[in-house]
Amino acid sequence: MPVLRWIDHNLERVILFILLLIMTVVIVLQVFMRYVVESSLTWSEELARFCFVWLIYIGISYGVKKAKHIRVEALLSVFKRRGKYVINMIAYLLFLFFALFAVYYGFSIYQVIKDTGQVAPSIRISMSIMYLGMPVGMLLTSFRLIQRIYIETKTYRADEEVIDNDIPRL
After folding, report:
1. DSSP helix, strand, coil percent of the chain (3-state; round to 5)
2. Three-class DSSP category at 117
């Protein structure tokens, strides 16, 4: 299972690195071609846009995995341990519902675009590939949300057992 563990720890990071690298190289190349060679590339902006769309949706999943999404900490500070746990679970479940909703409709949009046969004008790649970024990213986000719910529930229960064991029995 070391391969699965490596994939779990590094999947988003590797994909994000590759997408960012491609985007950066293509945009730097376009700037060089435009201002030094004085001849623009016709395909660079489309490829960068494809990478950017995928980068956004894979980045959402990575943010969930690392628990780095923006949230209102002031609200959580009002509650004790159990209240924080409950509010976090409600937030995760609402986010999971939204992510699954986005997966369903994202695949629907992908199918429509695929059926129409639209292609990007310059790079001649099916536009459905760009539209596939949302459902794939949100499916990965759903998986990471389920992981986060499991991890926080396990941590909460383990902490609860430690607290229960510290209470003297009569």
Report:
1. 80, 0, 15
2. coil
The overall longest dimension of the chain from CA atoms, in Å, is 85
Three-state SS at 119 = strand
Structure tokens at 71: 């949230």
Tens of pLDDT along 126-139?
A: 999 999 999 999 99
Q: What is the pLDDT of residues 9-37, one digit of tens each?
A: 899 999 999 999 999 999 999 999 999 98
Residue 84 corresponds to which amino acid?
A: K
Domain count, the chain: 1
In contact, 128 and 110? CB cutoff 8 Å:
yes
Per the structure block, which two tokens stand in for 64?
């969930």
- What's this model's pTM, rounded to 2 decimal places? 0.85
Beta bridge partner(s), residue 119: 126
- For 6, half-sphere exposure in the C-beta direction (CA atoms, 13 angstrom radius) is 4
* CB atoms near residue 68 (< 10 Å): 9
Task: Provide the residue range defining the domain that includes 125.
Answer: 2-166
Our measurement of the distance from residue 96's CA atom to the centroid of its chain's CA atoms, rounded to an integer in Å, reads 12
